């Protein structure tokens, strides 16, 4: 059975890029546009891994990490962030995210990180 990845980003181009990348490696991909939607989809689908943007409308990624970890303390969440947000990246790791990937996203880097947590 293939693993499920929830891709959370308010930018549709980022979601689409990650979706195509992950599907080409036979992962099942779910998408969410906001932190709130991410939390709801996590509850419903229990994905094996989440990629999470930090800056989003209605609930930011750090808050979403905290909320998802309340649902499942073993959730595997990887933050995707622009380098200028290093203080927010630290906050996300403190909140419980496993690691972070710096935007712009490079397919090889993204795959090596997610495989580390899925295999």
Describe this structure in words.
The protein has 119 residues and is α/β, with parallel strands linked by helices. It has a single domain, classed as 3-Layer(aba) Sandwich (Rossmann fold), CATH 3.40.50. The protein is built from 5 helices and 5 strands. A 5-stranded parallel sheet has the order 2-1-3-4-5, sandwiched between helices. Helix 2 packs parallel to helix 3 and helix 3 packs parallel to helix 4. The longest helix is centred in the first third of the chain and has 13 residues. The chain is globular, with a radius of gyration of 13 Å. It starts with a strand and ends with a helix. 32% of the residues are buried.
In round numbers, the mean pLDDT is 94
Low-confidence stretches: none
The number of helical elements comes to 5
Report strand %.
Answer: 15-25%
What is the total number of structural domains?
1
CATH-level-2 architecture:
3-Layer(aba) Sandwich
Termini gap: 13 Å
């Amino acid at each position: 059975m293939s693993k499920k990845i929830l891709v959370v980003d308010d930018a549709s181009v980022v979601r689409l890029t990650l979706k195509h990348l992950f599907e080409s490696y036979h992962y099942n991909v779910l998408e969410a546009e906001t932190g709130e939607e991410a939390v709801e989809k996590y509850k419903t689908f229990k994905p094996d891994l989440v990629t999470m943007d930090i800056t989003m409308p209605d609930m930011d990624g750090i808050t979403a990490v905290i909320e998802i970890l309340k649902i499942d303390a073993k959730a595997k969440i990887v933050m995707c962030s622009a380098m200028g947000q290093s203080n927010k990246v630290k906050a996300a790791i403190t909140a419980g995210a496993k690691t972070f990937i710096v935007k712009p996203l490079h397919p090889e880097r993204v795959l090596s990180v997610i495989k580390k947590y899925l295999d």
